[in-house]
Amino acid sequence: MKQPMIITGTLGMDAHIIGTKIISRALKEAGFRVTALGAYTPPEEFIKAAQETAAAAILMSSLYGMAELDLEGFDAKRQEAGLGGVLLYIGGNLVVGRADFEGVERKFKELGFDRVYPPEADIDAAIEDLKRDLKARGKL
Amino acid sequence: MSDIRLLIDFGSTFTKVVAADLDAVEIAAVARVPSTVDSDITIGLGKALKEIARRTGIGNLEEKEALACSSAAGGLRMICTGFVPELTSQAGSIAALGAGARVIGGYSYKLNRREIAEIEAAAPDILLLCGGTDGGDEKVIVHNAGLLAATGPAVTNIIVAGNKAAHDAIRAVFAGTAKNVIYTGNVMPEIGVLDAAPCKREIRELFMRNIVRAKGIARAREIIKDVIMPTPAAVLEAAKLISGGHGDDSGFGELIVIDVGGATTDVHSIARGTPARADTIMAGLPEPYEKRTVEGDLGLRYNLDRLLELTGGRPTPPGFNEAVAAFQKGRLPRTAVEYACHRLLTSLTVAAAVERHAGRLEVVYGPAGERLIQHGKDLTGVGAVIGTGGPLVFARKPREILEGARAQEENPFILKPRDPAFYIDAPYILFAVGLLAQAAPDKALRLARKYLKPI
After folding, report:
1. Taking CB atoms and an 8 Å cutoff, what residues of chain A touch B367?
2. What pTM did the predictor assign?
3. Total domain count for chain B?
4. Number of structural domains in chain A
5. Is residue A134 less than 8 Å (CB to CB) from chain B?
6. pLDDT in tens, A8-38
7. Per the CB < 8 Å rule, is A49 touching B191?
8. ipTM value
């Protein structure tokens, strides 16, 4: 079986590390290789790590509501770096206040994300999504 | 009969020989003669040995055990190629510098034909081929291997220190070529993990086996056994020993060695460099505990133009321009005015070189308020600064010059040492301590203790 490399980390100026740690651990248990970048990861670092490791997907976490600010220009940079084919997921408390999730999802998909998850999303379900998406791309 | 060891440095300008008496643990004699690498390296060495014999009264010097290092014939010239600049390219360059090389070029991503032409024109002694974490990207390193395989004899020695999963593909690419290809561990096996040691070993091994022969340095084998490392590596070995100690002597602790030369200035730090404050975030690759940087634009003979830029706006001593013009022609300071000018230029060199070597803090503002981000090593707590190299060793007031290594209150974001003790390598023997460090570390350390002068 192929063991795709997945990049994880908490985005931008966000210090919250528990979510991304749980995700990293669950991914390893599910048989993936993981490069865990931890908290305070600038968006460019996700790109560099994905290039060097030939990663199949990037899973970003963000809890502090400022993800959109941190991601300014990210999609363009990712395309420029030749990572258009790398799956991009994000999850957490993505906007400040109680916005309806459908709006949030639409907004982040416009930013280039393949999947968007609310704060209380189930990690196992997300990993199943990931496996399906990777299979569809012939990477699993 | 005392146990005399000969410790030799084949420099580009001078050949230095230190005769160390290991029984008395002292320097019996030091000789310095012009290097003769271009004609026959043994001529200069022979002269230096005669000088030592005259001073010590010891005859059969040729039979003494000798260890040598060399920076002659341009030093160990290396080019590093990697994938992402801040990741494998930088890791490769850190490994090369740590092995005592002069990094004359660095490349990232897939090489193109123009870059290959540049590399061939530069004719490096060793090309370090990196790229991809283990199990990561293979495309870039295999592509680069393909272009390098087609180069002429200007690129012969290649060390592969990239993605191990690409080794078989790279072997296939180099099969049938005249390249001497050596495979070693990945300098960056995982993101954020630097593993320079296996690569450094291969660089030194290759230097000892092949490079010294190609440079005509191996002729010295008629007199001595081997040239075991590039001179900067010997200085780094000395720094490690003096910092870490040996046996009952726990050493100087964390330290910095500044080696000012005619063309370049080396800074070595033996220090962890982790943040002083717990809430500081580290950015970038992890820093090596033993770190060497080389400033190719800071030197007291060949880079005076650059130093003049650094004086910009500062008051200069009277007669400054005339003195600098004389230095440019190769004159060494003799008059009081010349010493003052030389001192100013050397202190600017020290300040700039340590500033670039040391880490820095960046303040960023986020939702949680102010945050400190540290790039590079925090050297504020380093306890000792040791100066070596001609412009420092022969200066009249080395302490004034070395003060440039100290942190400045007006610039708290540059993480230079706050309150170090200063030492000068007065007899110019640091390389000898490093050479001796492998064979007799206890005596090497005692020599350093004896001859490094607190200033």
Report:
1. 13, 64-66
2. 0.89
3. 3
4. 1
5. no
6. 999 998 889 999 999 999 999 999 999 999 9
7. yes
8. 0.84
